[in-house]
Amino acid sequence: MNKVLLIDDDAELTTLLQEYLVEEGYDVVTDTDGRAAIAAAAGNTVDIIVLDIMMPRMNGIEVLQRIRKLSQVPVLMLTARGDDVDRISGLNLGADDYVPKPCSPGELAARLRAILRRAGQPAAGTSTDTIRAGKLVIHPGSRIAEWRGESLELTGTEFSLIEVLARSAGQLVSKQDISKRAFGKPLTPFDRRIDVHISSVRQKLGLREDGQSWIQSVRGQGYQLLVD
Q: Any idea which GO molecular function terms this record carries (predicted)?
């Protein structure tokens, strides 16, 4: 049973989400203080954290920043609807996904399943064989990535994205295909999630000798992982 830590100071919403997730088979712990999330990450006591951004004492962005210094535990952010700044900030700091509030319990449960699937066992039909793409080596079964012979630290979402590109190394992969293969759902209009996560992966890979990125983009179409 997956253990979920839900951090939100909205008591009514927290109760609603907790009851629904328990019925879905999750073990749910709630708290109103982001410091509980930091402690859980440090102690490796939960499988995933649902973290509201707007909270007293310490906001969700600061909490996420501290969590990522301690752990790569999956984090789903609850954001104010239409607040792109908070969403992009969260993704840049390593959040695995976000859900705008008010959110339906069903949508939250679906997002949790998708994140946990990416962070755990490969989906049915996914090869666990090692993938080699130039200097990049991907181990889907253990979800470990190596770059130039050294471990590449990636969030769960970043790993899913680079795995998709590595499987089609040297070829252009459309954003729609990336979304379906990495997130398990179609890309929606104005969703910049892929772009933000790709930007983070680019920084971790560094630049080629010619000064170009290892992940090339074709405006409005998709991305391509170079292998030489």
A: phosphorelay response regulator activity; transcription cis-regulatory region binding
